[in-house]
Amino acid sequence: MKRRTQSQTDRMMWICLCAMLLCGGAARASAQGVEEITRHVEPRMVKIFGAGGLRNLHHYSTGFFVTAEGHIATVWSHVLDADEVTVVLSNGRSHTARVLGAEPQLDLAVLKVQGEDLQFPHFDLKTSATAMPGARVLAYSNMFKVAAGDEPMSILHGVIAAKTRLSARRGAYEVPYNGPVYIVDAITNNPGSGGGLLMTWDGRPLAMIGKELRNTESNTWINYAIPLPELSEVIEQIVTGNYVSKEKAADPADLPNRYSPLDFGLVMVPDVVYRTPAFVDRVLPGSTAEIAEVREGDLVLFVNDRLIHSCKTLAQEIGALEAGDELTIVLRRENQLVTVRFDVPRKP
Length: 348
Prior knowledge:
6-stranded antiparallel barrel, 4 helices, globular
C-alpha cells in the first residue's frame, strides 16, 4: 500500500475543509431561503375558527387567499358547519367569512371574507408547481392551533415520497376524493392542518394539505396533500359563480335501508323541512338507546365519523349499516358532547 506524501495529505485536508465550508454555506443559504419564502407565505395564509370546540372536535383549521378580494381556499370539514366562521390574518386582525361554495368530491371549500373595499395578498394559482418524488417541500399550517392571533404558523420540512391516488377512509367510511395526491415524508396532517399549503423550496405553491385520514389497506395514518392543479379550475369557477357541483345526489331507491333509528329505540322529530335537525324526540323504554342513556332533546351530530346534517342523512347512514358493525353516535346535549356506541344486531 502506498503512503500518502505530506503534500497529498495537505491537499486532502484542504478538500475536506472546502467541502465543510460549502456545506455550511449551503445550509445558511437554505435557511435564508426558508425565511424568505416564509415572509412571502405567512401574509397569504389564514387561521380559520368555526364549528367544533368540544371533546375531540377541533374548531380550527387553515386556509390561504386565492384572490385579492378575500376568497380563501380550504379543506371541506366540520369546522365550516356554521353560518359564519372567523378568519385571522397573520397580523392578528380577524374577519368573518362565509362559505361561498364547496365541492365535497374534492374535499374543497371556498370562503369569502365579508366586507367591501378589502385587499389581501394572495397566491396566484396559475403559478402552481408540480413535483416528483424526492422533491423537498415546506408545509405551512395552523396545526394544533399553534397560532390564534399574530403568531406565525408552523412550518415542517418534508420530502415528496410518492405521487399516487388517494385510497383512504375516515372512521368506517371511504372518503369521496380518490384523485392524485402527494404522499409526504413528514407528519403534516394533524388537527388544524387541513387547508394548509405545501410549498416548493423555490417558493411556489404546490398542494393543499388534507384532513386526518387512514389508509384503507394498512389502517395507518397518511400524510398527503392534493395538488393545486386538481383544484385551481374549480376554485376559479366557485369564485366567479360559474360552478355546478359534481356531487351526485343519491337515488333513494338505490340506498340500502337495512336499519332505521327506530331499530335502536330512537324516535326522531318529524322530518318536515329540507334539513330538519336530527333531534331525538323520545327514546323507547327498554331499547338499546335507553340503555346507552340517550335522552330526549339530544341532537345527533355524527354517525361513525360522518357529519349528520338532518334527519334524512341520519336515516341514510343508519340504513347502510350491516349486522356486526359498531354504531358510534356523537350527540350534543346542551353545551357538551356525548358519545354512545351500539353493536348492530342481526335482524330476525
